[in-house]
Amino acid sequence: MGSEPAVPYWHVNVPEADRTAECPEFLADASDKDREILSTPDQEYHIQTWDDVLQIVKSNRLEELQRVPSELRRYKEYTWKLALEHGSVSNFVLRHRLGWETPIRARGRPFEFPEDIKILYNDWPYGIDPRIVHLVVWTKFSLADDTPNDDLSEQRRRDIDHFVAETFCSRVPENQVSPRGEVSFIHSFNFGSERLTLLAREKVLWFRNFMSLKSIHGVEHFHVMLFDPDPEFVKFITNGDYPRSRMPGKHLPHDPVSRPGPDSL
Does 77 map to a domain? Predict the structure, then answer.
C-alpha cells in the first residue's frame, strides 16, 4: 500500500473548502522554518510551558519560540495586509498602535521619562501556556546592540532589569534583580482606588530578539512575559490594551491608536 500524498504546507490546518490550488501570496515567501511549522497540524504542536520558556530564554535559544501553526498562518496574512495598506508593519505600529510621530525622538536618557515608553500586548503571541501574558515594551530610545555579537551591553541589561523589576515586580533591592532572579514574594500597591498585585520575580522574564529574529525593525522594543498575572494589573499597565489576534475580523489595519499608557507606577 502506497503512502498518502504529501499535503502542500498551505493546505495544512485549512478546511478543504477553503484550500487553494496555488500558494497564497502571503505565504509565498515563507522561510524554510515557517514552512516546516505551517506543515504541522495544530494537534501535533507542543504548547510551551512556563518552564519551557524560562529554559529557552535562559539558554538564549529564542528561535525556539514559535507560534501555533494556524496562528502563524493568520499572522503571515495579517502582516502581509498591513504592508500592502501601510507600506510596512512598522508604519502601522507607529501610527495605529503607538501613536508616535516620525522621526522618533526620545525626551531623555533610556528609561528616564515615561512618555518615551509604551507597554502593549504582543498582538500575535507564541504558542505558549495561555496563563502566560506576553507584552511588548516599546521605546523611543535605542537599546543599541553590543556588536559584533548582536547582543545587549551589560549596562543596558542592567537598565532593563531595573525597569522590569520596578514596573512588573515587587520593589526589590537592585542587587537582587536579574532576568532570571528569584525573589519569592508578591507585593500589592494601591493605585488610587485600585489594589493591584504585582508579580514575584520568578514569574516575570524579559528578552530582546536578535536582529535576525525581529519581525519589526523600525521601532525599538523588548519582550516581557508574565506567568498568571493579576488581570487588573495587566489592564492597568497596558491601559486597557488587547492583542489584535483576539478579535477575528476586527484586528486588521484600521484599529484606532492605543491610548497613552500610565505615567508611572
Answer: no
Q: What letter represents residue 109's amino acid?
A: R
Kindly state whether residue 181 falls inside one of the protein's structural domains.
yes
Expressed as residue numbers, the domain containing 167 is: 86-246
Q: Residue 236 carries which side chain, given as an amino acid letter?
A: F
When the pLDDT of each residue in the chain is averaged and rounded to a whole number, the result is: 81
Residue partners of 39: CB distance under 8 A and separation at least 6: 7, 9, 12, 69
Of the two residues 226 and 173, the one the predictor is more confident about is: 226
Band (pLDDT 50/70/90 cuts) for residue 182 is: very low
Break the chain down into helix, strand, coil percent, rounded to 5: 35, 15, 50
Q: What is the pLDDT of residue 45?
A: 97
Phi-psi group of 124: left, alpha or beta (phi > 0 → left; psi -120 to 50 → alpha; rest → beta): beta
> Is 8 a domain residue?
no
Residue 53 resides in a domain: no
Distances (CA, A) of 15 to 1, 10, 20, 45, 81: 26, 11, 10, 18, 21
pLDDT digits over 49-84, tens only?
999 999 999 998 999 999 999 999 999 999 999 999
How many whole angstroms separate alpha carbon 240 and alpha carbon 121? 10
